[in-house]
Design goal:
134 residues, mainly alpha, binds protoporphyrin IX containing FE
């Protein structure tokens, strides 16, 4: 049945956070060559501004994620569901830590690995989330 209730708002906010955190990383990565052509500092400035927007949305994903967990009846889910949720939480942690190290480091190689790895981990969490509801 189609309805608009608290569950709608919970999932809406969870996916809004995902859209900005993961979608924003993909768009920012795509813009880097253009930003480089504008100026040496442009990618760094754009990334810093993106971070100011993205971190609150990451917090939104985590808060609504725990809200999701609280709404799921533990008796109604399979061991597979719990395993995918566990993998997802690990990937979320990797995504957050990698993004933090990515912005904090001065080492170019570490920046590259944590930038790419963090985005892949966020995508993996996205896949796990979809698997949990399909
Ligand atoms: C980058 C981080 C995350 C991504 C990309 C992500 C992605 C998703 C997606 C795509 C869904 C499916 C929503 C739907 O169509 O109903 C989902 C659901 C869910 N997420 Fe996340 N999520 C993230 C973080 C978290 C965290 C941190 C938690 C737990 C603390 C969590 C717990 C859940 C649960 C339990 C559901 C199932 C909700 C239900 O069955 O109603 N998620 N997530």
């Amino acid at each position: 049945m189609i309805s608009f209730d608290l569950d709608t708002i919970r999932i809406l906010l969870h996916l809004l956070g995902v859209a900005v955190w993961l979608g924003g990383q993909i768009v920012l990565a795509a813009l880097v060559p253009v930003l480089r052509s504008i100026g040496e500092d442009a990618p760094r400035l754009a990334a810093r501004r993106f971070g100011q927007v993205a971190w609150p949305f990451f917090a939104l994903v985590v808060v609504t994620g725990f809200w999701n967990v609280a709404e799921v009846d533990p008796g109604s889910v399979s061991a597979g569901y719990n395993a995918v949720l566990g993998i997802k939480l690990l990937l979320v942690a990797i995504s957050g830590v990698a993004a933090f190290v990515h912005t904090a480091t001065d080492n170019k190689m570490v920046r590259g690995i944590t930038g790419g790895g963090g985005a892949v981990a966020a995508f993996g969490a996205f896949l796990c989330g979809v698997m949990m509801v399909s």
